[in-house]
Specification:
The protein is α/β, with parallel strands linked by helices. The protein has 19 helices and 28 strands. A hairpin with a 6-residue loop joins strand 18 (393-395) and strand 19.
């Protein structure tokens, strides 16, 4: 009889490991199916002891040990990856099981018996490596430049590592980015480049995984973050491409950042890590200036473009009735020239729907969701199955509630409900009113909710000269080749968001639009004096970087601190009391409490608390222990993507 210590791979577990008994022999590192509460979950064996050796412990245990019925003695997870998961569990103040649950897809665990495991090098082999094999030194490098320059660096790096008999992992934020990266790097190394992402058929994933493990020749593995557990002992370089992209954040417990996980893996494996993007994060640039990161090539702080840039002050179009124009004369003229010359044009709108908000013209009350209290967005009517056109409707982007726009103000009963802000539906409507014969294709979450639909829209756009591709930020993930002309119709609404990263996000969007434009780019704004637009249209990244770091240092934001956001929701008096208890628990550290902008979908109130710690003081064991002791109803985010 054996007692095994198991890490359950599941979210919401308050402890790192649980103990079970079994009559079978189980190796350390094996995957097992264990009972947890009322269900069976998979877990990893981290310790095995004979019952005879710990009889007294079992007798005095305050709980009864449960039996493990089924065993899968498979060492799927490499030791370096386990060390990474342990480090991540400390950093994000969570359990090891929840980290593994977030990083390893269920279908890999369920098919573990079909996955081959890379042979482990013997100690004598590691000591007698070839003189051409790189030493196991962890260093972080960075590349800031346009797509062509970065991929030229990656291809050169691949050739260099292949010559050294070494393999490379290239990580991307989205499936579309993975497909694009694979298409660019596989030329010339067909048969030795492999693609792993969640949209591949399950049989293909298993087959590709096993081919990667078996292939004797060095390989390049292009992947999304769910496949970082794959192991090849000859991997000496890891690349994180588009490291400024938001897609690297996992938006469910325990809210990990794949970029950070990749760096932990590189550190524990003793390999080189390369970070690349057209505009690196301010945190990354700061680390480079401090000597923590090495420039793999001279940074491009001047983003060059062949496009002619124009900034249009839209305040001049406001008429005496107080309404405003959506499309400037310059944009309308550019659309006409695009159509006449049989070129293509890309148009960006920051918001979904017709407008960002609906406001009462008499009392200025904002129309909100009946369920969660968030401002609703007006969406344009659509025809369904060739039948009559529906009426416009309010949609809550927070909880999904949908209702008719035919209502009075709930505060003063006025009928003067008007929209403010510019949404993509309104932009499309205005273009069609002015240019009824032009073809418009859209890529956004409403028009193209799936990858297949987005790809189809892009193909139709490319095949139709004189057409327009209209989209939100989602569009930029699919447009890789340059378009002759572009316009940013609405981006001012993002400037009003109280988020310390918002200026960087806007600049990142504008730089990407500019990089994908061949001839002419027009940016419309009602805030032309914002220095951000000058930096973006001149490609002046260095001045923006200096200004951003100065502001973040002044307010003690990252990279000058580590932020920890704690969130509770419920009835007002209850969460105030709970947050007061949390503040007392975390003393003597300062915890700033502030309310959320909206309620939850169930109508509950939300309170946030924010801790700022010096970067060098995290992770800190005493605080981690306190955060882990909080009930599951409390949400903890380390390095949150937003403070909203």
């Amino acid at each position: 009889m054996n007692i095994i210590e198991v890490i359950p791979i599941s979210r919401g577990i308050g402890t790192d490991s649980l103990s079970y008994f079994t009559t079978k022999s189980v190796p350390q590192g094996a995957l097992v199916d264990v009972p947890l509460r009322s269900k069976i979950v998979q877990g990893i064996v981290i310790g095995v002891r004979k019952v005879e050796d710990i009889k007294s412990e079992i007798k005095n245990a305050p709980y009864a040990l449960r039996k493990v019925e089924r065993l899968n003695a498979i060492e799927l997870i490499p030791k370096a990856f386990m060390k990474t998961a342990e480090a991540a569990a400390l950093y994000y103040a969570t359990s090891l099981g929840s980290v593994l649950d977030a990083l390893i897809p269920d279908y890999l665990l369920k098919n573990a018996s079909k996955l081959e495991i890379a042979p482990i090098k013997k100690e004598t082999e590691t000591k007698t490596e070839s003189p051409n094999t790189p030493s196991s030194i962890h260093e972080v490098y960075a590349v800031q430049g346009d797509d062509e320059e970065r991929y030229s660096t990656w291809k050169s790096l691949i050739r260099q590592e292949f010559a050294r008999k070494s393999s490379i992992i290239l990580v991307t934020p989205t499936i579309e980015d993975a497909k694009r990266a694979f298409s660019l790097i596989e030329k010339g190394i067909e048969g030795y480049a492999f693609l792993l992402h969640g949209d591949l058929p399950k049989k293909n994933l298993i087959s590709t995984w096993n081919t990667i493990v078996r292939e004797p020749h060095p390989v390049v593995i292009v992947m999304t973050g769910g496949f970082l557990a794959i192991d090849r002992p000859d991997v000496r370089v890891m690349i994180v491409e588009k490291e400024n992209a938001r897609g690297y954040k996992i938006h469910r417990r325990p809210f990990l950042d794949v970029r950070h996980i990749a760096e932990l893996i590189a550190e524990h494996r003793g390999i080189k890590l390369f970070l690349g993007d057209i505009l690196l994060r301010a945190e990354t640039l700061s680390r480079e200036s401090e000597g923590d990161i090495i420039q793999a090539a001279p940074f491009k702080f001047r983003s060059l473009s062949t496009a002619q840039d124009k900034l249009i002050d839209m305040r001049i179009y406001k008429n005496t009735k107080g309404s405003f124009k959506i499309l400037s004369d310059e944009v309308e003229n550019l659309i006409t020239r695009t159509k006449d010359a049989s070129e293509h044009m890309m148009i960006f709108a920051a918001r979904r729907g017709v407008a960002g908000a609906t406001v009462c013209g008499d009392c200025q009350n904002i129309v909100t969701c009946n369920t969660c209290g968030a401002p609703v967005v007006t969406h344009k009517a659509t025809a369904r199955n060739g039948c009559a056109v529906e009426k416009n409707f309010f949609l809550c982007h927070h909880c999904g509630e949908r209702r008719s726009t035919e209502e009075y103000c709930k505060i003063c009963a006025s009928w003067k409900l008007g929209t403010v802000g510019i949404g993509i539906d309104l932009v499309e409507q205005k273009i069609r009113d002015k240019f009824p014969d032009i073809s418009i294709f859209r890529i956004d979450a409403d028009a193209t909710p799936s990858d297949k639909l987005a790809q189809a829209a892009l193909l139709k756009f490319r095949a139709k000269p004189g057409s327009i591709l209209l989209g939100t930020e989602m569009m930029l993930s699919y447009v890789h080749e340059k378009v002759e002309n572009s316009a940013v119709i609405s981006i001012d609404s993002m400037l009003g968001l109280p988020d310390f990263r918002i200026q960087e996000k806007i600049l990142y969007t504008l730089i990407r639009m500019r990089a994908r434009t061949a001839k002419e780019l027009i940016v419309q704004t009602r805030k032309p004096d914002e220095r951000l637009f000058d930096y973006a249209l001149k490609g002046n990244l260095s001045d923006f970087y200096r200004l951003t770091l100065d502001e973040r240092k002044r307010y003690n934001y990252p990279p000058f601190s580590t932020l920890i956001k704690i969130t509770v929701e419920g009835k007002r008096d209850e969460i105030i009391s709970e947050m007061t208890t949390i503040q007392s628990l975390l003393e003597p550290h300062t915890v700033d409490v502030f309310p959320a902008f909206t309620q939850t979908p169930t109508g509950n109130q939300v309170l946030h608390a924010l801790m700022r710690l010096p970067r060098t003081e995290w992770p800190q064991s005493t605080i981690i222990e306190k955060l882990r002791s909080l009930p599951p109803s409390v949400t903890v985010k380390v390095d949150p993507d937003s403070l909203l």
